[in-house]
Design brief:
This protein is α/β, with parallel strands linked by helices and 490 residues long. The chain has an 8-stranded mixed sheet, sandwiched between helices. Strands 7-8 form a two-stranded parallel ribbon. Strand 5, helix 4 and strand 6 form a beta-alpha-beta unit. The chain is built from 15 helices and 10 strands. Helix 11 crosses helix 13 and helix 12 crosses helix 14. This is Serine protease K12H4.7.
């Protein structure tokens, strides 16, 4: 879910949205999530609203509070109707979602009140004076769910909505939060739509790049083979300092390559692989309304360039594609200095280069989820950024060295992973989206159905409908509406 901002590089994991409502630039801050459209008559929708939250919901002795941002659209609300709560994710909450998106079409039909709550520590929702390691201890999915519970309870009482049925919506990480909100607080939320939700935490996530391979191969079987050949050539040249000047020129890097450790070369390789990862994740998604750029670059465009022999050998095509991305995002060059990345991510100021969401989200991957999209599988086109590359970032940025295996196990114990057990959650996923590998793609029970949409990417069902949408995408949206209609009648 997302909006548009500076170019974030290498913020491992779920992208996800939205930031869900967030900032999409070309090397997605973790590869994210959010979406939608209608002819809504919006009154308060673009105005910031504020809600008082506790800093620590789990320590009664800590009485500190802060202001959390939210948005409201009551254009479609009919007395007695449901309340739709869109959950913000790893970036600024985008008020465009209060005017666009499939969820508003559902709201129009069902007479729902629509709310969007920004996630703590993202956007303008600043619980602490800065993003120091000591303050980031209050950033977690558990605290975010408690925020949702308190917001729902107080808002219902103030607005006379205590007897209304609440439905949680979210895409990507917020999709997981939507499912977990229903799981952990079933007395507060009646149903949930958990789109592209990676509900299973895992330290190492090489399957992400395996799906990238398959998605490229679905366009043309030769495409991922050429990408692999180009990547392998680059890896070989990075072992020879005599090639550094040419590589710097070929890819228009901002400064000459300096490789003093494996982290330096891994950062270069992941940055360039990110061109493919981001395009595949959001392939043909209708997210321009969020302010997202580069939506014209699709899998078809990527493979078209990789198959174009007039551009030179596969390595030269790989470089030409990076230059195309620079032009698309109005970038004069690509910064591939790992030390610069660490410096940016270590800045604890709210005005720092990572404060839009990068520093916060990578912290969450280091302390809850993992989700590291490594090259540790042979069944994918890239190499050079193994799991250890991501784990080292946790140490370099936050001085964290505890076992992520134990932390991720705790997360899955908390929420159930793939084996979530509750009722009235629908799990939409797209076959092209690499995140579906950590989601629910088959029905768990009749009341926990999956909607697996062939040929679509990350959170596609949340975005505004358009004539060129695949028929199965329209059918998926209709199916989700029928489920909501049925559940709200229960």
């Amino acid at each position: 879910m997302a909006s548009e901002c500076n170019r974030f590089k290498k913020y491992p994991a779920i992208l996800l949205i939205v930031f869900i409502l967030l900032c999409f630039s070309r090397t997605a801050l973790c590869r994210r999530m959010y979406r939608y459209e209608s002819r809504a008559r919006v009154s308060e929708a673009t105005e910031d609203q504020w809600f008082i939250q506790r800093l620590d919901h789990f320590n009664g002795a800590d009485t500190r509070v802060w202001k959390q941002r939210y948005f409201i659209n009551d254009s479609f609300y009919r007395p007695g109707g449901p309340v739709f709560l869109m959950i913000g994710g790893e970036g600024p909450a985008n008020p465009a979602w209060m005017q666009h998106g499939t969820w508003l079409l559902y709201a129009q039909k069902l007479g729902a009140l629509c709310l969007l709550l920004e996630h703590r520590f993202y956007g303008k929702s600043h619980p602490t004076e800065n993003l120091s390691n000591a303050n980031l201890q209050f950033l977690s999915s558990r605290q975010a769910l408690a925020d949702l519970a308190h917001f729902r309870t107080v808002t219902a009482a103030v607005r006379g909505l205590t007897n209304s049925k609440w439905v949680a919506f979210g895409g990507s990480y917020p999709g997981s939060l939507a499912a977990w909100f229903r799981l952990k607080y079933p007395h507060l939320v009646h149903a949930a739509v958990a789109t592209s939700a990676p509900v299973h935490a895992t330290v190492n996530f090489p399957e992400y790049l395996e799906v990238v391979w398959r998605s490229l191969a679905a366009e043309n079987p030769e495409c991922p083979l050429l990408v692999k050949k180009a990547s392998d050539t680059l890896v070989a040249r990075l072992h020879d300092p005599k090639t550094y000047d040419n590589i710097t020129k070929d890819f228009r890097f901002c400064s000459k390559i300096q490789i003093q450790s494996k982290m330096d070369s891994a950062y270069i390789l992941e940055t360039l692989a990110g061109n493919f990862m981001d395009v595949v994740q959001y392939n043909e998604d209708n997210r321009a309304f969020e302010g997202a750029g580069g939506t014209n670059i699709t899998i078809k465009v990527l493979c078209g360039m990789m198959l174009d022999s007039s551009l030179g050998d596969p390595y030269e095509r790989y470089a030409a594609l990076d230059r195309l991305m620079q032009k698309t995002f109005s970038e004069s060059c690509t910064d591939v200095q790992y030390k610069n990345y660490i410096q940016d991510m270590s800045n604890t100021s709210w005005s720092g280069p990572g404060a839009e969401g990068g520093r916060q989200w990578v912290y969450q991957t280091c302390t809850e989820f993992g989700f590291y999209q490594s090259t540790d599988s042979p069944n994918q086109p890239f190499s050079g950024f193994p799991l250890q590359y991501y784990l080292q970032q946790c140490a370099d940025i936050y001085n964290l060295s505890t076992s992520l295996d134990d932390i991720v196990q705790q997360t899955n114990e908390e929420y159930g992973g793939y084996d979530i057990r509750t009722t009235r959650i629908v799990f939409p996923n797209g076959s092209i989206d690499p995140w579906h590998a950590l989601g629910v793609t088959k029905d768990i029970t009749d009341d926990l159905p999956a909607v697996f949409i062939k040929g679509t990417a990350h959170c596609a069902n949340m975005y505004p409908a358009r004539t060129e949408d695949l028929p199965q995408l329209g059918l998926a949206r209709d199916h989700i509406f029928l489920l909501l209609q049925k559940w709200l009648a229960e």
